[in-house]
Amino acid sequence: MSKPVSKKNRGAKKKRSIRIRPGKILFDLLLCFLALTVVPVLIYSTANPSTTMLMWIRWVESDYNDKMPLAFMHWKRIDEISPYLIKAVVAAEDQKYFKHKGFDWQAIESAIKVNLTTDRKIGASTISMQTSRNVFLWQERTWLRKALETYFTFLIETFWDKGRIMEVYLNVIEWGDGIYGCEAAAREYFNHSCATLSPVEAAGLAAILPNPRGWSLHRPGKYVNHRRAKILNTLDHIRLPRLD
User: Fold this and answer.
1) Of 79, 89, 114, 241, which Cα lies nearest the Cα of 169?
2) Which of the 8 DSSP states describes residue 180?
3) What would the pLDDT profile of 67-115 be if each residue is shown by its tens digit?
4) Torsion of CA 84, 87, 91, 94, to 10 degrees
5) What helix, strand, coil percent values describe the chain, rounded to 5?
6) How far apart, in whole angstroms, are the C-alpha atoms of residue 3 and residue 111?
7) Cβ distance 53 to 172 under 8 Å?
């Protein structure tokens, strides 16, 4: 016959049952973080994102303007985009794109030196870093965003190939107020598809990428024209691997 459990023993069991285990909590949080980050990266390795956080931020900043798109309307596969545009953005934004694994360490080192020793502030974001920021994060410069940008860049370089990264990049980046992606930009500025962009047109689109909301090809200034000419002269030196 079993002995009755005393009140003291029952209290001890209750205390043991509600004991908090920090290790398990941290492990569960880690699993949640991985699920919320790795899973979307894996999905977008084949499926196209329909919207981004940046589009919603711009919509709110515009006081909920109905003319600001909240979804991508004209997604183009990499083989449907003019190779001149691919060459132009590589020439303008990341000339080592096909050689690095997401990070141009030499450019990062140079940027740190300039930022620490002068009043100038320059960046060293690769196309992969810009893609991770535009798809998964926000634009405001904070240490948290930079850390997450580094993490997502590592993920997309691990699970996507260079062709996929370039395709997503060209389809999601801003090319002006309410203009997202190369097809919308080509139609806005040249009234035709991005598939038929000429070298001059492609160089023009790449020239405004550093400041797409401040610069426009409708009224390009001297600096934009200078950048376009410089990019155009570089196109013949860019060799594209097979991306499809």
Assistant:
1) 89
2) B
3) 899 999 899 999 999 999 999 999 999 999 999 888 877 777 777 776 6
4) 140
5) 60, 0, 40
6) 75
7) no
Is 13 among the domain residues?
no
Written as six digits, the tokens of 75 are: 């997604």
Structure token digits, residue 117: 């020793």
Q: Number of folded domains in the chain?
A: 1
pLDDT at 122 over 70: no
Amino acid at the residue 186: A
How far is C-alpha 237 from the chain's CA centre?
A: 26
Lookup: tokens for 123: 């960046």
Quickly state the pLDDT bin for 238 (edges 50, 70, 90). confident
**Residue ranges making up the domain that contains 49:** 22-237
Q: Report the run of H or E that residue 26 belongs to, with start and end.
A: helix 22-43
C-alpha 183/C-alpha 197 separation (Å) is 10
In angstroms, the first-to-last Cα distance of the chain is 76
